[in-house]
Amino acid sequence: MANVNQTASDNAEEFGFHAGDLVQEWLWDDDVDDSIRAKIEELTGEELVDEDYDSAVDGVIIWWRDGDDEDELSDTIVDAYAVLGDDGPLWVLTPKPGRPGAASSSTVQSAAKTAGMNAATPLTVSADWNGVRLRAFGKGR
Known about the structure:
Elements (H helix, E strand, L loop, with lengths): L1 H10 L11 E4 L7 H11 L4 E2 L8 E5 L6 H14 L6 E6 L9 H10 L2 E3 L3 E2 L4 E8 L5
Parallel strand pairs: 1-2, 1-3, 3-4
Antiparallel strand pairs: 4-7, 5-7, 6-7
Helix pairs in contact: 3-4
């Protein structure tokens, strides 16, 4: 089963994005994993758009690090969900434990709950980053 998960990670399919999807990226900084960005762009065939993009998008990734304000994360989740069409995939990406900026999954879960979202179990999305998929209460599984 680990090989299946690794293959999905290598192809960015686990994010739930599809060809033609427009994916918005929030809180980008020079520490992000460019391989994740490249895999999403390869899968969708579209460049990522930044948080200033103000039309509907098909998916969202939020890069979040410990030390950032938890209330800011809740606000960012609310803002990102507002432009997310049809309950598309919304992910919070955090550095893995032991890496600079590593965040507790309980912090992400708390911020998600404040924003009216459920947080899934963290997944490994690269060597240095975990991802947590969020869903609005009452949506999906």
